[in-house]
Structure formats: structure tokens, C-alpha cells
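Inverse folding, one chain.
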């Protein structure tokens, strides 16, 4: 399927939602951290998913995943 719109593309939006839905599975791999909230900016060009974490010492951390689909090469 050729992508005609990249700002954001449908695939970028679906991928960002999928990452957000994986919160519980991701948290299992971060034994010393709890995910306290997620910010999902899926309507932006190059959507991003921001995870807010709290470590075992009570320190806050942020992890940002930016979704970028490169143009199709046809």
C-alpha cells in the first residue's frame, strides 16, 4: 500500500497506539521503575509517546519514543 500522507501517516498513528497499549509488558522489563503515566501525541507530524516513570528511589524519569515513517521507496 502506498502511503500518500505522512503528517502523520496512518501507520505512524497505529504504531504509536500499539506502543501505548504495551505499557504493562514494557513495565515488566523495568523492575526498578513504575510507569506512572503516558502522554501520547498521535496527531502531530511524527507522533510521540512519552512515558513518565518513577524509580525505586522515588526519582522521576521520562522516556520519549518518536515515531517516524520514512517515505516509501517505489
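Residues assigned per position:
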Amino acid at each position: 500500500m502506498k502511503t500518500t500522507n505522512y503528517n502523520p501517516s496512518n501507520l505512524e498513528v497505529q504504531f504509536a497506539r500499539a506502543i501505548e497499549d504495551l505499557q504493562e509488558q514494557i513495565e515488566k522489563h523495568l523492575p526498578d521503575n513504575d510507569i506512572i503515566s503516558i502522554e501520547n501525541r498521535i496527531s502531530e507530524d511524527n507522533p510521540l509517546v512519552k512515558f513518565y516513570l518513577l524509580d525505586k528511589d522515588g526519582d522521576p524519569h521520562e522516556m520519549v519514543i518518536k515515531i517516524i515513517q520514512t517515505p516509501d521507496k517505489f
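The radius of gyration is 15 Å. The longest strand covers residues 33-41.
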